[in-house]
C-alpha cells in the first residue's frame, strides 16, 4: 500500500503540489512550436511533386497531347453547317463549323461567361450563348457582344483523307 495521497502537503497556501507533474508538461510552448515546424516541413515536402507539376503547367513546358479524334466526314457537312462533338473528353462539348470548302473552325461549346452552351447561328454568322445573349466571332472565337470577356477555347482540327479530326486544344492565353 502506497502512502502517496495520504500525505498532507507542507504548510503553505499553494495547493498545486498535489498535481502529478510527470505528465503535466508533455506539450509546452517549445514542444508545440517544434511540432508545428515539423508538420509544416512534412507538408512542404509532401506538396513538392504537385508544386513541380503546377509550375511546369504554368511555365508552359508541358504540351498536352491529345489523341486524334474523328469528328465527321467532309461529305457529311456542307459549307455553313455545324456539327457537335465531344473533345478532348466525353464530357467536353464542342462544335465544328465549316466556313468554306477548305476552312473549318472548332471551339469548345461552353460560353466563357457561365458555361452555357453556345449555338451556331448560320444566318447571322456568329456563335450565340442564349443564357445572356453573348455572341462570339466565328473566325476567332472572340466575344463580340454580351457579358463574355474571354474567347471560346479553340480546338485544332486537321483534314486527312476527307475526314475532319480534332487534334488539340489551343492553350488559354490571358
Give the secondary structure arrangement, pairings included.
Layout: H1 29-59, E1 69-73, E2 82-86, E3 93-98, E4 104-108, E5 118-121, E6 126-129, E7 134-137, E8 143-145, E9 154-160, E10 163-169
Antiparallel strand pairs: 1-10, 2-3, 3-4, 4-9, 5-6, 6-7, 7-8, 9-10
Can you tell me about this structure?
The protein is an alpha+beta fold. 18% of the residues lie in helices and 29% in strands. The protein has one helix and ten strands, in the order H-E-E-E-E-E-E-E-E-E-E. It has one helix at 29-59; strands at 69-73, 82-86, 93-98, 104-108, 118-121, 126-129, 134-137, 143-145, 154-160, 163-169. The model has no long low-confidence stretch (mean pLDDT 86).
Short description:
This protein has 174 residues and is an alpha+beta fold. 18% of the residues lie in helices and 29% in strands.
Shape: elongated
Tally the helices.
1
Mean pLDDT over the full residue set: 86
Strand content: 25-35%
How far the N terminus sits from the C terminus, by CA atoms, comes to: 79 Å
Number of DSSP strand runs: 10
Q: Assign a percent range to the helix content.
A: 10-25%
Structural class: alpha+beta
Q: What radius of gyration results from the CA coordinates?
A: 33 Å
Q: Tell me about the largest β-sheet.
A: 6 strands, antiparallel
Instruction: Please state how the strands of the largest beta sheet are arranged side by side.
Output: 1-10-9-4-3-2
The helix/strand order is HEEEEEEEEEE
Poorly predicted runs = none
Amino acid at each position: 500500500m502506497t502512502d502517496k495521497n495520504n500525505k498532507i502537503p507542507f504548510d503553505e497556501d499553494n495547493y498545486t503540489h498535489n498535481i502529478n507533474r510527470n505528465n503535466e508538461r508533455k506539450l509546452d510552448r517549445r514542444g508545440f512550436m517544434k511540432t508545428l515546424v515539423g508538420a509544416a516541413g512534412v507538408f512542404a515536402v509532401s506538396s513538392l511533386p504537385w508544386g513541380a507539376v503546377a509550375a511546369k503547367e504554368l511555365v508552359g513546358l508541358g504540351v498536352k497531347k491529345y489523341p486524334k479524334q474523328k469528328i465527321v466526314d467532309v461529305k457529311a457537312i456542307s459549307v455553313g453547317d455545324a456539327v457537335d462533338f465531344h473533345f478532348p473528353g466525353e464530357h467536353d462539348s464542342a462544335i465544328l463549323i465549316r466556313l468554306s470548302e477548305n476552312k473549318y473552325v472548332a471551339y469548345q461549346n461552353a460560353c466563357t461567361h457561365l458555361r452555357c452552351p453556345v449555338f451556331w447561328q448560320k444566318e447571322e454568322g456568329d456563335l450565340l450563348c442564349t443564357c445572356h445573349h453573348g455572341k462570339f466571332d466565328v473566325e476567332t472565337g472572340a466575344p463580340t457582344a454580351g457579358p463574355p470577356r474571354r474567347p471560346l477555347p479553340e480546338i485544332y482540327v486537321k483534314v486527312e483523307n476527307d475526314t475532319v479530326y480534332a487534334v488539340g486544344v489551343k492553350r488559354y492565353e490571358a
